[in-house]
Amino acid sequence: MEHRKTYIRHTLPHDDSEIVLEGPVTPSHLRSLRMHPELDAFRRPKDQLTALIEIAGLPEGRIILARVNEVIIGYVTFHYPDEMERWSQGSMQDLIELGAIEVANDYRSLKIGSRLIRTAFEDGQMEKYIVFTTEYYWHWDLKSSGLTVWDYRKMMERLMQTVDMVWYATDDPEICSHPANCLMVRIGKEVPLESEEQFDRIRFQQRFMY
């Protein structure tokens, strides 16, 4: 499958400088940048930058980032689901995971997250894909945000809804392990019916329970 990647760049005035929102970016571009020290939700900033470089080099991988000069202050990743997860079953070429989104604390009031996601979907780049994200409460920054689990869940739903991702039911054990966890999905306009049906079979594997 051909993965079309069209570079998009936006700027946002901020204090005496500007925030650049851009992507999909190349591994070489990422190597010229450094991570904001607060971007440590998944691993140490330096190690996370290494992971972003690896994702950017994948045929289907996409990194959309926000930066101030050479400092990355936020990013969102897109890639095929991990082979250890049920979502990789069938090796669907048009099923892409919105894997991680992170914004440094000092910039969270600027709606950087929603701007990053909207940038990723510009120019019809994602219309050939079923894009999904799995939201688990244990990944949420409840401490820094001061939000309850349910308020954070609502915030994440609003964020994903900016690109028309909606809640989908599933019997996936990890998602079902806590009522705040959820699966959100957007089916592109060019996705064939066969792919939608295959995704439904992946979502529900214990039909006898319903």
Automatic annotation (TrEMBL):
- What are the recorded GO MF terms, alphabetically? acetoin dehydrogenase (NAD+) activity; acyltransferase activity, transferring groups other than amino-acyl groups
SUPFAM superfamilies named among the record's database cross-references? Acyl-CoA N-acyltransferases (Nat)
**Which Pfam family, an example, fits this chain?**
Acetyltransf_1
| Domain N-acetyltransferase residue range list | 19-170
Source organism's superkingdom?
A: Bacteria
Name the Gene Ontology biological process terms: acetoin catabolic process
Q: What is this protein called?
A: Acetoin utilization protein AcuA
